[in-house]
Amino acid sequence: MFPDLERRRVEQLLSHFYARRILAHARDQVRLGHSIRGNSVTVFEYQRGFDDPSAWMKIPVAQFRFDPRTGLWSLYWQDRNRKWHVYEDAPPAKSLGTLLAEVDRDPTCIFWG
Fold first, then answer.
1. Average pLDDT by stretches of 10, the chain with 113 residues
2. Which of 9, 17, 55, 107 is close enough to 49 for a disulfide, judged by CB 3.0 to 4.6 Å?
3. Structural contact between residues 102 and 80, judged by C-beta atoms closer than 8 angstroms
């Protein structure tokens, strides 16, 4: 588990990212959220179900892993078999914000499709 201060930074950074990424008029159809498990933060997109609009589908977008020995974050993407892979186009970074910006830009269309 990463330190409490880093966890608070993560929560704040992601909160701002979600507010900026999803436009207000679309928030009833699409949402963003995350889960924290150990040293990993997984970002999800939630979309209303096609057959049942009251149900939300949870789609993994990206995973960030913190290495407490180095203090660096690494970025991962998920394949169609739900296996996570290191995202080779962005080296590990001291700041999660650096990697979050890469996910936002998504130059390879691997995160947002």
1. 84 93 75 94 90 87 96 96 97 96 96 89
2. 55
3. no
Coil, strand or helix at 62 = strand
Backbone angles phi, psi at 14, to 5 degrees: -70, -40
What are residue 40's DSSP bridge partners?
37, 65
Structure tokens at 75: 């970025």
Which SS3 state, helix, strand or coil, does residue 100 take? helix
Find tokens 């608070």 and name the residue.
8
Q: Helix axis angle, 4-21 relative to 96-105, nearest 10°? A: 20
Residue with tokens 């990206």: 62
State the residue for tokens 């970002």. Answer: 43
Position 23 scores a pLDDT of 66
